[in-house]
Amino acid sequence: MTYSTATIDRAQTGLANGLVTGACIMTPVGEIPVGCLSVGDRIITRSGIRALRAVHCTVLPVAQLVCISASALGVEMPAEDLHVLPNQGIHIRDWRSMALKGVPQAVFSARDLADGEYIRLETVVGACLYSLEFENTEVIYANGVEVTCPHSGYRLPR
Length: 158
Hints:
Elements: E1 2-5, H1 8-14, E2 19-20, E3 24-27, E4 30-33, E5 42-45, E6 48-51, E7 54-68, E8 82-84, E9 89-92, H2 95-101, E10 106-109, H3 110-113, E11 119-133, E12 138-142, E13 145-149
Parallel strand pairs: 1-7
Antiparallel strand pairs: 2-11, 3-4, 5-6, 7-8, 7-11, 9-10, 12-13
């Protein structure tokens, strides 16, 4: 696992996606807290079971995050409040996608879904943020919400 420390400025510009400690990720053996995952762990994605290629942990002394309240996106979606970076991609497959983009499913940044009440910006002190990398871009399940994990640029050895 890679660890680093960043300020709120770097969090706004240098990190595109990430889940805060406590988010539970769906695996073949059940939900596992993101902080307990390591390289090689198998994760359930929309495209099947995929192995983690890298896990990066960044400690943010102060961070502007989006809090998605429990059940804000549907029944138990998320199962518990979920904190993510504002640019974290959230995959939506319901009336919200039709209303906002005119398509049955789309990826939205968490910030674009904010309504100020059930999905809102919050300043969090001492956030530990995890970014998960796979061989290809994947959609995983965090607290029951479909979130994107962009392609890591990983290349298999030849």
